[in-house]
Amino acid sequence: MIITVVGLGVVGGSFVKALKGHGHQVYGIDIDENTLKRAEDEGCIIKGYQDGREIISKSDLTIICLYPSLVLDFIKNNQFKKGSIITDAVGIKSYFLQEAMNIIDPDVEFVSGHPMAGREKKGFEYASKDVFKNANYILIEHPVNKKECIEFMEKFVGTLGFKSVKIMSPQAHDEIISFTSQLPHAIAVALINSDNEKYDTGKYIGDSYRDLTRIANINEALWSELFLRNRENLLKSIEAFELQLDLIKQGLVENDEQILKKLFINSSKRRENLEK
Amino acid sequence: MIITVVGLGVVGGSFVKALKGHGHQVYGIDIDENTLKRAEDEGCIIKGYQDGREIISKSDLTIICLYPSLVLDFIKNNQFKKGSIITDAVGIKSYFLQEAMNIIDPDVEFVSGHPMAGREKKGFEYASKDVFKNANYILIEHPVNKKECIEFMEKFVGTLGFKSVKIMSPQAHDEIISFTSQLPHAIAVALINSDNEKYDTGKYIGDSYRDLTRIANINEALWSELFLRNRENLLKSIEAFELQLDLIKQGLVENDEQILKKLFINSSKRRENLEK
Hints:
homodimer, 276 residues, alpha/beta, 6-phosphogluconate dehydrogenase C-terminal fold, three-stranded mixed sheet, 48% helix
């Protein structure tokens, strides 16, 4: 199979690295010449292209790992092989799929996906097949998808090290992702921004503050797009979180140990069972 | 110098491991016989005691790594060597020091401390001198402390791998800690408790949710005590956080990309500079 990965950043780079040794013909497209050369030198891709039109027209599977708006541009500006599959790694799906379905050739199958894997560090040098190890994958099924294409993608992803592949609608994806991905980012941003900077904070932190603020360092263009394209779900998730924070506040205001203990017992049990 | 570490859990265990090879005579006290045996076998302590009265009366430095209320009991029930120093690792200081000063022998110097190091895992087997590596330490100075004892502790802690040792009042400690430690714990608990459990959440998470909920698994007795003994500071920290979360909500409600971008640029800059 001819597979082309578009955008060899940390996610796209991890795809080409995870694909090594699986017997596919893997090509890469990126704007950065050095990245392409490095991917070639490491034997991850047969050849790299800055202009991918030629290889795209021959690819059986195109994995587009670009920012949402660039994925749409890429689909618009390229002629894909008839009967081939395109997939992506965009973090929001309802809005994005609507847009994508408007521009995609009906002879081409778009199976949208979301590898729940990444790093706060950017770029090919941080890409690794370990990024995918034990990570979760969500595949999006929408009414025009062919069943066999979804099944193919499920199997394909399963060979790359992911521990779970779930198939769901774009709406369900955006609902759960507003809670598991966007809410944590909103919280991390609000936490570090709420520092009154009276003290030299970095000298008074442990791993808890480090862990909770790590994802506060984010690309503002990407994340404002992700937040705004899923704003209703995200607002609901924030409000549910605030209700729980209110319970903690209630325990503090009323000096009620029992309220707090109950909340902590519940959170501990949930955390222990999270990935069981 | 004769040093006795009381409680060989992850923090106390890390103390005896970090003290190896520094030329001190190190002893350990713990209720668990196996832990003491293991610490002896690993050459971390000369001898372990379940009843420590004998060794405590000879120790120049006693490092008590027990839960807050147990520290007070231990101080009450033991006769310390005249002129010796006692320290602890309790996470709240104003209330705790008040209680401790009421019961401590005036011939003994209590230099309270807070190693900002730990693990979500409990027990001696997770203790390691690496726990202290590059971590922060806070030493508490109060009016009855002898200057030379504070200076001694500052130097002593510096030999154990910590990258920063700060000296401050109990009030300042509790203020900054309500933000850097207790607020993150409150957030983690509220986040995981706000899961409506409509989906099998563990299959739809990435590292962001894992990182932000790791500390949601906490000991309910310890943490309700830490929260309630510092409730006014913690409530202020929660309220400052909520104001920042409100700004994100405002950006979402008003569909305003500029508000969000500004918040994300600020949080990214703060995170990048956090430990510089």
